[in-house]
Fold each of these.
Amino acid sequence: IALDLLRIWDNTLLSRTITGGIFGLSCGLFVASLLGISPRFQLSPNERIGK
């Protein structure tokens, strides 16, 4: 969207797709880390089963 405002790219669909993809990916990773889905925050898969 910022690229559209600055008129750097004329293809608004492409720029919005890339911007949305980067924003969505970063938000998805952030939410995953908060929920403990990320492997960095998992102690052991066996400990989470049954709790």
Amino acid sequence: MVNKSFGEKRRTLLAVLGRPIFFSRSPELYRAAFRHLKIEADYIRVASTSLEEAWQTIIEAGVNGFNLTSPYKEKILPYLDELDERAQAVAAVNTVLRQGNKFRGYNTDVDGFNFALRAAGVCLGHQRFLVLGAGGASRAVLLALQQAGVNSLWVTNRNEIKGQELAQKFGAAFLPPAEIPRKIASFDLVISCLPRTEYLLPYNQLPAHGRLFEATYNHYSWPPVQGDNNHKNKKNSKKNKNNKNNRNNLSLAAQLPQTKKLQSHSDAHESQQLFGLLSRDEQAERQAELEAIISRQKTDSGCLAAFSQKQELALNPAEFCFGLEWLLGQGIANLRLFTGKEISEQDVAGLRKAIYAPRPNRAKIALIGFMGCGKTSLGRLLAARLNCGFIDTDELIEKHTRKPIATIFAEAGEAAFRQLEASLIPDLLKNSRPMVLSLGGGAVKEERVREALRRSCHVVWVWAPFEASYQRTAGSNRPLLALNNSPSAIEKLWEERQSLYAGCCDLLVSNRDGKLDQAARLIHEEINSSF
């Protein structure tokens, strides 16, 4: 169970780390679980440019436990004090618990994969399996299949030496990538543990009885498929470059999830392909197709049999199962570690509903955080990157009242200012225009503000340790410094606010060192990679 020795001053704080990370559905899963189990805890996404940066943030922010996704599952090992047996076996960790001053790593990807197999009704006997990739997720799959006694098991990987070593370790055979087109029809189950931008497989050549399992879920129109020939690839590459330039506009970045065009073809080319954006009309058309297919599937299994719609999508009729069931399975195992509680079948149904719910289509980014964290300066930089408007709510209030914030505090008090703030922000968010907003540090104290933010914005918590925030604001005329004139009183206020920020944020970005350009670029990249 989570040890709260570090964060006992406030609610338990859990997180997920990765790059990118904004796509992650983990917060939806765990927040739904905590509400149902009546557990006082928050779960957030932590954006980072490196694992070193992420580690420093979770240490200083008092994170009690966290999950990891690519590319951090293997890189985390030197940071940990202990590993469970499965983490040692696969040399990869996706869950970490803080126990006092020590960190223990676990691997629940095995649980996630086994759960996804059961949800899909897969029988392991007398079937041939092909695992794509040689990373941490691939090793977890191989361990699960090895423990289940599977004998007909193959591994393929672009780095053939690494793939051969992995196959030998788990008693599997190695299939060279060049052999895939000729052998693919012989496999009953293909498990892809590759990032979404990598291509190894002519998916349309899967047999009708076959199944494709995807470990990833951060793209909606799976699977990626290759172009017809080099001429088309070059043409698409030029088109995609032009489309990429358009992503600076937030109104486009905040539209439906960017999708990859599905084509039918029989030839096989190189082992890796990168894909660009579709036009907005193509996105809407493809999303409508996908939603029509989803509506015809049984939601209790979690498997998207997209390949069965051959005439509609010109794909081979193999069943396709994507990574949300894997996420759900590992989430159930992680909840036992985090809370010590068992999850019932009824609970599982509720969690499944939470992670399958569509991500809200929001056209605004709201920056929240304690005074001195850099929200206003960062907001202006981010708005310039996204080519959209910027509003600082404190500046807007001063313009509206024709009084400085400090004067409003002095004449009417903090409570009156918060009421003014709470009436202005929800009205401001009713505007449908894309924009970046910087909110005052105490704006999230009001529930109606928090609710309006959840409804209308991607909420980014600009985090900085107390010492950095205090040094940046010391000597200024900020009204809260006048009301709380000792560092200990300000630190207490900082501590009280952390749970409010965690409770309504979609993403945490650290501005510990004041590198505003880097923080703006990171938020921009996260938005672009996830929407």
